[in-house]
Amino acid sequence: MPAPSTGREIRLAAVPAGLPGPEHFTVTEAPVPRLTSGQLLVRNRHFLVFPGLRTLVSAGAKDFPFPPLKPGETLFGPALGEVVATGPDVADVRPGALVTHMQGWREYAVVGAGAVHAVPDGHPDPVALLSTASAAYGALTRLAELRPGETVLVTGAAGGVGSLAGQIARLLGAARVVGTTRSPGKAARLRQELGYDAVVVPGDDGSGSLAEAAPDGYDVIVDNVGGEQLTTALELTRQGARVAVVGALSGQFDPALPGGSSPTVIDTFALIKRSVSLLGYQTVDHPGVEEEWRERFADWLRAGQIAFPHTVLPGMERAPSALQELQQGRHFGTLVVEV
């Protein structure tokens, strides 16, 4: 097919004072850059909607791996697409190949050949490669070093990471898996579809409910939320428990906070008394985890041992409202836009 001259992009129209809404984004027709040496032109099929976007479009973001976006700039993030053309000096990627990369939120992306990951032939579900659950896998295998027979708590269990974290824990040998979510309907799905032993909907009696779900306490916590849920969970840890902090949704989705902070009250004396480790997880600190996760995830999907809960929003016109829908908890599992 001839190379297109223009393509649609989702750009930041204005920096939001609180949580971003559709009015803070715009769909723009923009020129497609000409390919130079070592570049590929990719027609995106799907791209990921992820909580970190709130931080990227926030004026208060600090010490984030990527610089905050400015008005007029195009959003970015994980995407799946088809190579439609290659520039000079590209020999190992052919037109028609499916690849993943980080230039989502646009119809056509110009990407360096070394910045894409080829989708393996026969992959059971290429869209699943947009999942960010490698963080849960890395947290459980590297930070927590989950041992068979242990009890695991996953906060924010109905999100893109949490909906897979409990399944991963079970496949790695956990004896009991407990989750939290703010939706009773999602709690039922987590139990019925994803095999959670118990799911707690936090409320005024959240501490008691979490305690009842695991009377002997928790050996491992995969925390996607922070805030009050992390405070409560730490009170229920067992001796030698390991806590892996993967996300900070309570801060990112709080309209009163700038998007780059998530304060939590922690009883440090309790951590000392029970020898609890509390560590934050970043993929860049653990080389090889992403590749290992992709291989194991594909094998588990192929064998029917794991589910990939996700929602697809059809059409670029849905993209400006997608982040708001994620913040409002309208969907179950991973959220992607189909271009």
From TrEMBL:
Stored PROSITE patterns? QOR_ZETA_CRYSTAL
For the Enoyl reductase (ER) domain, which residue ranges apply? 18-337
Q: Which InterPro entries match?
A: ADH-like_C, ADH_N_2, ER, GroES-like_sf, NAD(P)-bd_dom_sf, Quin_OxRdtase/zeta-crystal_CS, Zn-ADH-like_protein
Which CDD domains does the protein's record reference?
PGDH
- The source's domain of life comes to Bacteria
* PANTHER family found in the cross-reference section: QUINONE OXIDOREDUCTASE-LIKE PROTEIN 2 (PTHR43677:SF4), SHORT-CHAIN DEHYDROGENASE/REDUCTASE (PTHR43677)
What is the protein name stated in its UniProt record? NADP-dependent oxidoreductase
What organism is this sequence from?
Streptomyces endophyticus
